[in-house]
## 1
Amino acid sequence: MLRPLLTKQQIAHRVGAMGKQITSDFAGQTVVLIGVLKGACLFLSDLAREIKLDATFDFIAVSSYGAARQSAGEVQLIKDVTTPLQNQNVILVEDILDTGLTISFLKKLFSARQPRALKIAALLDKPSRRQVQVEGDYVGFSIPDKFVVGYGLDFAERYRNLPDICILDPEESK
Ligand code: IMP
Ligand code: MG
């Protein structure tokens, strides 16, 4: 069963505000948005249109949970960017911060390329699940420890195309 948590209107409103914030923080500069496939795709495409700056984007892929709800605890880069990042304002765009393992891995990886700035934009945050100390610079919504799907987020690759973000009943995934 799917229970609505955030409607597409709420999401659009918040993404608009995040775009405004990024626009003013990087006024007069260029930014490179790096989306983490596949979950951040929808968020990146909406956020990019709310950023009124000279922007480019690129994508990376990391190992995912597969059909499991729990992270294996290890992150692997499956697809890298083709954009050189030295001296660039880089914004990592992620669907959700959960244990923090993915983002802390990516922060380490990309800071080694000497960007001018390295920021994290995450649509959702589950702070209660954190295993490593890491925070988003731009966070859409802080949510409780529930498994959510929709607006890019999946369970076993399904539900990414739902316009709203919904809580997936635990029974559903057994
Ligand atoms: P972390 O490394 O534990 O922070 O995990 C981040 C990744 O886990 C996200 O990019 C999502 O792909 C996935 N994830 C974490 N929580 C959820 C959820 O509630 N629904 C769907 N995917 C999730
Ligand atoms: Mg995912």
Note: The chain has a mean pLDDT of 94.
## 2
Amino acid sequence: MPTSTVHLIAAARPNFMKVAPLYHALKKEPWCQVKLVHTGQHYDPNMSDAIFRDLGLPDPDFHLGVGSGSHAEQTGGVMIAYEKICLNSDRPDWIIVVGDVNSTAACAMVGTKLLIPVAHLEAGLRSGDRRMPEEINRLVTDAIADLLWTPSPDADENLRREGVPEFRIERVGNIMMDSYELMRSQIAAANAPAAHGVTPGNYGVVTLHRPSNVDDKATLNLLADQLKQAAAKIPLVFAVHPRTRKRLAEFGLLADLERAPGLKLVEPVSYIPFMSLVSSAKLAITDSGGLQEETTYLDIPCLTLRENTERPITVSEGTNRLVEPKNLLENIEKVLAGKWPHGRRPEQWDGKAAQRIVASLRRRTGN
Ligand code: UD1
């Protein structure tokens, strides 16, 4: 008979690969009744449903259907809808939030105000850049959550520096690698490069969606221009996020990019085919957080188009480097010349994070 009900909150694409291994692990525990709550922050079939299917996740127990909006609308919408569930239909014993999206901070606030313990998975990451909406979500969530599960020592240090007491911090490692290991054979069998007409080992993968890169016309124009030139050196598969597609169209850049030789624009790709693409790529060009980690795990050069990263271990130990748009080409040439440094896998990025999290939660719930 389960003694603890746990809500696991899923909201947006980068959450799903963090939620899935933990969901599967908690499902096996007799003391735990785990329920999946989808806030609906991401709702397109290829941003949500397909990834749920790939990761073996069932339909959510609760779907809040909040959708897009301004930051306040989205955060407020999630809070209102999730509070109703906790008050009226299903008050859990614990709430687990993951990552740094608006729904993460929203559900953490709902839980702590109702005196329901909240655990944050992927706690302690800091870019130090408060212009980034995710940084605000990280600060808010870590300030109020009862239990902070961190992926790496730098995250522990950030929390200590902010005065978080030791008993709230537990290092569990990086759960993204659990998803990769769970799906490894399916990823290996997917053969996504062929489906996109590229040869394993001879193409780059591109993703871009940060407001700082795509919402400003001059910046996006520069990036589009660099990508066109880069595609003349090595074929690029660019999985275009809905936000980015909208901006490219709005700024009149889309048609030109679609015609550029060597550059293939595709819709967002689900987890298994995407990891199949990444694992055979020569390099990745991105502003994603997760891809910085996955490329470090796979020892693939990652050119991150950002001024800072909340994942510095991917630079100090891995294959990730921060690159200015104007230097993109010269960095690609470095990769093609075989001059990109190799990295190593950080400690506890081993596919066993979910096990450690289950053990931690079991202790904390007294089961
Ligand atoms: C959100 C997260 C970001 C994460 C990213 C991954 C926050 C603050 N940001 O950013 O941390 O890296 O998800 O994708 O939580 N849209 C669709 N279909 C969808 C989802 C969005 O068309 O399924 C469009 C909407 O028009 C929306 C825009 O994309 O306005 C941006 O979506 P939103 O959820 O606001 O933020 P993301 O940029 O996806």
Note: The pocket of uridine-diphosphate-N-acetylglucosamine is lined by residues 12-14, 41-44, 47, 68, 100-102, 133-134, 209, 241-243 (CB under 6 Å).
